[in-house]
Amino acid sequence: MADEIELKTAPADFRFPTTNQTRHCFTRYIEFHRCLAAKGEESNECERFAKYYRSLCPGEWVERWNEQRENGTFPGPL
């Protein structure tokens, strides 16, 4: 085989002990955008948060949240 793809998800987080990962997804999405705001778009330090929320959150949610952020109607604390 050519290149093998390694799949990983976000590490366990004691703040989210249940199997329902909705809050975990939302928190990681917010952490990513807070990191970008603090460190800048060019910073690679935020990439781990991006990997976490991308592995936890359904794509439809992320698309909707991105649209809401662009429109200024995002419900979360950014």
TrEMBL record:
Which CDD domains did the record assign? Cyt_c_Oxidase_VIb
Entry's Gene Ontology cellular component terms: mitochondrion; respiratory chain complex IV
Q: Entry's InterPro entries?
A: COX6B-like, CX6/COA6-like_sf, Cyt_c_oxidase_su6B
Checking Gene3D superfamilies in the record gives:
Cytochrome c oxidase, subunit VIb
Protein function: Component of the cytochrome c oxidase, the last enzyme in the mitochondrial electron transport chain which drives oxidative phosphorylation. This protein is one of the nuclear-coded polypeptide chains of cytochrome c oxidase, the terminal oxidase in mitochondrial electron transport. This protein may be one of the heme-binding subunits of the oxidase.
Q: Which PANTHER family match?
A: CYTOCHROME C OXIDASE SUBUNIT 12, MITOCHONDRIAL, CYTOCHROME C OXIDASE SUBUNIT 6B
Q: What is this protein called?
A: Cytochrome c oxidase subunit
Tell me what organism the protein belongs to: Durio zibethinus (Durian)
Question: What gene is behind this protein?
Answer: LOC111285597
